[in-house]
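Researcher: Next sequence.
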Amino acid sequence: MKYGGRRRRRIVFERVCIIIITLLLVTAVGRLASRASSVRTSGTQAYPGLYAGEIPVQREAPAKTVYLTFDDGPSKNTEAILDILRERGAKATFFVTAQGDDLDFIMSVYRRIVQEGHSIGLHSYTHQTGSIYRSTDAFLADIDKLNTLVMEATGVRPTIFRFPGGSNTSNCTKSVMRELKAELERRGYIYYDWHVSTGDDTRTVYPADTLAKTILKGVRGRSSAVVLCHDNPTPKTTPEAVAVVIDTLMDEGYRFERLTPDIIPIQFK
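Model: Next structure:
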């Protein structure tokens, strides 16, 4: 009887353990399913104002066309660049942020960009890559805030976009970047990388002539080119370099236009 009692207790104990393990597994699976559903829901339902509309029919960029693009502004450098563009009848594209404490100034430059016929695109509100690239939701929250600010300042809904660091940046995992690309494309945004990098995104401020030579070398020989420049406060020689590039290439028959969603995007493969 004693042996039989021990055996029964062991069987009961084993059954209880099986039930507990089963319940734990069911709970874990349920949590994973809920988390996956939450991710899908956040992507499809969150930030309802963050939509660019339908993507137009896209076309190749015209021959001998240069698309000057400026990241990380606005700043006083942006104003100097806008002066140069206006004087020469050239157009450009500004992928803006909201870095800085003076939002009134930032919004006034947004308005000037639009009023003078240039394209304004989204880049990042904070440009804090360590934070915004943590997840798709963190990135969308940042961009939604910027989109709201640009629309409030200009009345224009941005439709083009550039990832901080480009679409193959090492600051973002490949899995998160895949999700971001899919989500932004689903929302109607076109993102652009570049053919030619000016090299003005370092702490070193290079002479304007050095920057201009880099751009000219990269553009010549191409049918068209998207050029990456920066208009944050550090690269103080960029406006002068831009003036040299525009004057030189206009003499060679190039045009300077702004990016629009109908231009086939330049992206890293």
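Model: Residues 32-43 have pLDDT under 50 and may be disordered. The first helix runs from residue 2 to 45.
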